[in-house]
Each structure stands twice: as structure tokens, then as C-alpha cells.
């Protein structure tokens, strides 16, 4: 990554974090804060979510998103949706305006129309960088299920975006959004749309958002795994996050990480990959933005 590209990513993370932090500072809800953070990243073509989503094998864009309110355990998610400008807004609408948790494909898109969720044309989602990645993936002949490296043989990079927050009323919330895998086939859905795998929030415990090898996060229910370790084994957030990633996820050779905040405002951002774009802030901790390991 060039210094210029790194600077762009760090600026984008700062912008997203600031959107959410201003809501929290003014007494707003954790739910509004995580949605605002994720919307900002969905609008930025740098990230594999919303506008910057990767292409499927068919050359289309299919997006997943989920959101959860720790105050009442309500959750909403969408999977394999097309042309939705801000999928996280649709996920929240599913949570607040339907009796369901997950809606998929054309049904989710019809629900979006009924609830005035903004659509965008195919051209809005087209980025040359993502299109070139698809062509390389097809030319390589590699299966999209080759989870250790990308189509060029490099260590694979993940692109899910997410946020976790605690507000002044003690409420927790988490949100996650993604364009999935480059060259994905067969209507594949990853962990982002699955509550308990990629997203979870419960007041009195923690809020979690995950990124990485979706299939492995699904098998380990990583987001809820962290919650359960805290609830039933009484581990601290740090202990639970590290156990979920370094013990459980590692045990099945999955790769990725998570961001989490607990009911006391402690923050953990744990990953077993070479890096993870991440940023955090609280009333006691100044803004911190990192990409690689041990940047301090």
C-alpha cells in the first residue's frame, strides 16, 4: 500500500469515527452512532461495502448488512441485495419496521421500496479497481472458496466495515456491512448478515462487529461466542476477544478479527491477520487510528 493510499484510508476512518462520535457526544444513541459510522464507509469507494463493493462472478454487486440494538436484542439484516445505496439503513428498517430479522434479494429490495430506502443505479457502484479484481480472479481460475490467498497468491484482504458503540445511557449497539467476496458464486452469503456470527450486541455485556473469512465466522458464531464467554465464563472483554480469535477461530484456521466495546466502555480490536483497518475513541481515550499490528 502506498503512503498516499494509507493516508486516504486513515482519513476515511477518521471521518467515519467522527460521525459516530459526534452523535454520542451530544447524548445520541449507540444505534444512531453505529449506523452513521457504517453509512459513511458505505458511501466511500475505498471500502468493500456500499459504493465500493466487490463484483460477483456474474459481474453484479450483491451486499449484506446487519444491525443490532443491545437494549432490547432487536436485530435486522439484509443479504444479497442489489442497488441499495446504504444497505445498513435497510437492515435497520428490517429491524424496526418488520416482524423479521433477515430479508434477502428481491424481497428485501421490495421492502426497501415500501420504506423509501434510497436506491442507486449500477453505474454508482462501479469502481475500476473492483472490476479489475474480478477479471484477475476469473483469469486465475481460482475458486472463490480459496480462503488463504487472493487470486494473485497474496495474503487475502478482507473488506467488511463495522462499528460498535456504547452511549451515555448504557445502551450498546453494533452494525456491519459488506460487498462480500470478489468472484462469489451461487448466491453466497457470509457472516455479516447472520446475527451472532458477524454482529451482536447485548446491554450489560458487549457489542461486536466482525470481519474476515465469513464461512469460519459462521461456523464459530464468533460475535456471540465473545458474548457467551463474557456472560457464562465471566471473562473480561479483552480475555473473551482474544479467546474467540486466537483460540476458537485459530482452531479451524479461520482468519480475521473483531471490534468490540463492553458495558464499561472498554474497547478491544483483535485480529489474527497481518492488519485490520480500525479506529476508536471514547471520553477517556483520544482518537486512535491503525492499520497494522503494533503501530504504537
Quick description:
By secondary structure, the chain is an alpha+beta fold. The protein is built from 9 helices and 11 strands. The protein has one domain (3-292): Glutamine Phosphoribosylpyrophosphate, subunit 1, domain 1.
Explain how this protein is built.
This protein is 36% helix and 22% strand. With 296 residues, the protein is of the alpha+beta class. The chain has a single domain (3-292), classed as 4-Layer Sandwich (Glutamine Phosphoribosylpyrophosphate, subunit 1, domain 1), CATH 3.60.20.30. Strand 4 and strand 5 (172-178) form a beta hairpin. It starts with a helix and ends with a strand.
Which architecture name does CATH use? Answer: 4-Layer Sandwich
Q: What is the number of helical segments per DSSP (H or I, 4+ residues)?
A: 9
**Structural class estimated from helices and strands:** alpha+beta
What's the count of strands?
Answer: 11
Order of helices and strands: HHEEHEHHHEEEEHHHEEEE
Relevant CATH superfamily: (Glycosyl)asparaginase
Strand content: 15-25%
Amino acid at each position: 500500500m502506498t503512503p498516499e493510499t494509507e493516508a486516504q484510508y486513515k482519513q476515511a476512518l477518521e471521518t467515519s469515527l467522527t460521525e459516530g462520535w459526534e452523535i454520542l457526544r451530544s447524548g445520541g444513541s449507540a444505534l444512531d452512532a453505529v449506523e452513521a459510522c457504517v453509512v459513511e464507509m458505505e458511501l466511500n469507494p475505498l471500502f468493500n461495502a456500499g459504493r465500493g463493493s466487490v463484483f460477483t462472478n456474474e459481474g453484479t454487486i450483491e451486499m449484506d448488512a446487519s444491525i443490532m440494538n443491545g437494549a432490547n436484542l432487536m436485530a435486522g439484516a439484509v443479504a444479497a441485495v442489489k442497488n441499495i445505496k446504504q444497505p445498513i439503513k435497510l437492515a435497520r428498517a428490517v429491524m424496526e419496521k418488520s416482524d423479521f430479522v433477515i430479508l434477502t434479494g428481491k424481497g428485501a429490495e421490495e421492502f426497501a421500496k415500501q420504506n423509501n430506502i434510497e436506491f442507486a443505479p449500477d453505474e454508482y457502484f462501479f469502481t475500476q479497481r473492483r472490476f479489475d479484481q474480478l477479471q484477475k480472479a476469473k483469469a486465475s481460475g481460482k475458486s472463490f472458496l480459496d480462503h488463504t490467498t487472493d487470486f494473485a497468491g497474496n495474503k487475502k484482504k478482507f473488506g467488511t466495515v463495522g462499528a460498535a458503540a456504547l452511549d451515555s445511557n448504557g445502551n450498546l449497539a453494533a452494525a456491519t456491512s459488506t460487498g462480500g467476496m470478489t468472484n462469489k458464486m451461487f448466491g453466497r452469503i457470509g457472516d455479516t448478515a447472520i446475527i451472532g456470527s458477524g454482529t451482536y450486541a447485548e446491554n450489560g455485556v458487549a457489542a461486536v462487529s466482525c470481519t474476515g473469512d465469513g464461512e469460519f465466522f459462521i461456523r464459530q458464531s464468533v460475535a456471540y461466542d465473545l458474548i457467551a464467554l463474557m456472560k457464562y465464563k465471566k471473562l473480561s472483554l479483552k480475555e473473551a476477544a482474544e479467546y474467540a480469535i486466537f483460540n476458537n477461530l485459530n482452531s479451524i484456521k479461520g482468519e480475521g478479527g473483531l471490534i468490540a466495546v463492553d458495558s464499561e466502555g472498554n474497547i478491544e480490536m483483535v485480529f489474527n491477520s497481518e492488519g485490520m483497518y480500525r479506529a476508536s475513541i471514547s471520553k477517556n481515550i483520544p482518537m486512535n487510528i491503525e492499520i497494522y499490528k503494533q503501530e504504537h
